[in-house]
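Researcher: Go.
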Amino acid sequence: MVFDGERFHRPLCPAGILSLRKRAGAVLLAALTLVASACSMATKVRSMFGGDLPFYVVVMPEANENSAVAVDAVVVYNQNVLDQIMKLRASEWFAKKKQFMNDHRGDIDVQAWEWIPDQVVPEQNIAYRAGARKVVLFADYASEGEHRAALDPQQRFRLVLDTLDLNVKVIQ
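Model: Structure:
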């Protein structure tokens, strides 16, 4: 700093320019770090505050032995309720669905769809609130089986409705 009799002045010298370059570089680095981490942060933020879980659906031509397939996504917020749901087969879920929803208000959210064989389905979303523990998918197949899958609410996935059962693959 230089005092000219009235005020202090910072001389523009290479050291001052270098300092400005360092500051600009640090700001640029911080901005790039924020942009680079935004994708991974979105999942963490979504899990803390809720959001929409995007997923894809593929309905095979012979799905459910060539019959429509009802699919429910049950977002579970309570561990005890999750334990109960994980014991249910899809046929039990669909038979008891209304009563289960009445008995567990606030502990679950349910979204329902129905697709026909070979239907082209656009990207779908499952809405959920903060505190979601799992998303449980039930598919109402005519064949015997569990026809159930459980997923983390932060993991995108592909749901394939095949001839005799559903298949879920997590997308990284």
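Model: DSSP finds three helices and ten strands in the chain.
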